[in-house]
Design goal:
With about 90 residues, the chain is of the alpha+beta class. The protein is built from 4 helices and 3 strands; from the N terminus they run H-E-H-H-H-E-E. The chain has a 3-stranded antiparallel beta sheet with strand order 1-3-2. Helix 3 crosses helix 4.
């Protein structure tokens, strides 16, 4: 799976009227798309040579990279509340 496909999965989990944090998105991704989740995490861990702690944090890191990329494309909105980043689809 390439990075643009992963971005599309993340977009499918976001909503326009509801902000979600990264932990929530990781859990949704794991439940809604288990096969793609495991495939992407394996690729991500191999590409960045992650092990132990880095491997455990890789889902959060991968989703965060995707969200930052989508933010640059103006497809999502981000806000920070109580030190936590929250994300949603960009309102038209």
């Amino acid at each position: 799976m390439d990075f643009s496909e992963f971005n599309q999965l993340i977009l499918s989990l976001l909503e326009k009227d509801y902000f979600k944090n990264i932990d929530y998105l990781v859990q949704e991704l794991r439940v809604e798309y288990p096969d793609q989740y495991h495939q992407v995490m394996k690729q991500f861990q191999e590409e960045y040579h992650l092990s132990t702690c880095g491997m455990m944090m890789s889902p959060i890191t991968a989703v965060n990279i995707s969200l930052d990329s989508l933010l640059k494309e103006s497809l999502v909105e981000k806000k920070t509340e109580k030190g936590q980043s929250l994300w949603r689809l960009k309102m038209d």
